[in-house]
Amino acid sequence: MADIPTAAISRLVTYLRILEQLETQDVSRTSSNDLAERAQVSAFQVRKDLAYFGRFGTRGMGYTVPILKRELVRVLGLNRTWSVVIVGMGRLGQAIANYPGASDYRFQYVGLFDVNPQIVGQQIRDLRVQHTEQLRDFVSATPVDMGFLAVPPDRAQDAAQALVDAGVRGILNFAPVVIQPRTTERGGVSEPGEEWRNVTIENVDFLAGMKRLAFYILNPTLKAALTEDTE
Amino acid sequence: MADIPTAAISRLVTYLRILEQLETQDVSRTSSNDLAERAQVSAFQVRKDLAYFGRFGTRGMGYTVPILKRELVRVLGLNRTWSVVIVGMGRLGQAIANYPGASDYRFQYVGLFDVNPQIVGQQIRDLRVQHTEQLRDFVSATPVDMGFLAVPPDRAQDAAQALVDAGVRGILNFAPVVIQPRTTERGGVSEPGEEWRNVTIENVDFLAGMKRLAFYILNPTLKAALTEDTE
Known about the structure:
Two copies of one chain form a homodimer.
Chain A: H1 6-24, E1 29-30, H2 32-39, H3 43-51, E2 63-64, H4 65-76, E3 82-87, H5 91-97, E4 107-114, E5 123-124, E6 127-128, E7 130-131, H6 135-141, E8 146-149, H7 153-165, E9 170-173, E10 183-186, E11 189-192, E12 200-203, H8 206-218, H9 220-228
Helix pairs in contact in A: 1-4, 2-3, 8-9
């Protein structure tokens, strides 16, 4: 699986979302054409993306919705439980903790952190918000798979470093900044610190969506052209 | 500009975010290699994405940060003001309204809507939250470029239809569902209603980020391989 583009993984997530909606509508079969139209990509793209991971359909018969859904859940690793801490429990962190559907996927919030004394100590979803200073001790004592960063932009870098120092290997960053690994000098060359080895950062950016939307409002034919590109 | 992949637009947004951060760090020059490394794509990809829109650098000299930033702002249409309404002013809608940085981009909130009587009438960012029933009248009287949907999943479809009926042509959907245009029958064929012509929907999905992160935590070498693919 060495050559799978990141965009293909994003599209798998979109296909899974579409399959879930088809299931709630009691639709039991779909096709690459149907998925393509709903995802606004080409049918060729759908088949290529799925082919990275196996053969899920029957030639000329399309896909069985619950089977393809189950397979994508497995490919994405969503058939296991993920222990998550949220750093930053302002409006955004609270919106995340209460986002509908996260619990469907066994994302389990095990710790909530903030630096604001008015928020520390509050009870949110059966958890007492802890001070971010306690993050390292907490992660030493509790297995944590992912950290969600919902802090203001100017605190994101330090909060990310605190998560990585504490041993968390996956970060979902909601702040509108690009997290950079702390670099260390070795033989005159600066390189990411050892603690950043195998750390994955994914960005969720409200502004990114707004910016894409601005572009497509100004260029509506681009989107339309893609929708029609379904062979 | 008929053949620009949607993924290229997403990457432009990422490059812009990186350029903004370089600017705050007083870095005045960058290169396709540098941008590529920070965006976790190949340098070839960076050059190809930028080439859709013009020639922004000097061969062998790289890019001037403020100039490339200004050009991407222009390409994305972020040098003009966008009037925005938010439908759904629970935790998520409030987090959006207060998201840092949106005001940098002349996204201007002109109306906030909810159905919850405890939220309607509240004052948020100098606006009084109105009942969603008033959306159509409001949009008739006030130019609105975009609607942000922050309603629960089971209300997203109706809220999107209300926005489109009211004449809004761009929707940023934060609910974890795929919005489907209301179809009408014409000559035995069901097709999207006329009101959906040139409507653009962009999805921002918290869960999508969580799912991608799960995949990359399980497959860390995939991400590493991409980072190294910088020629």
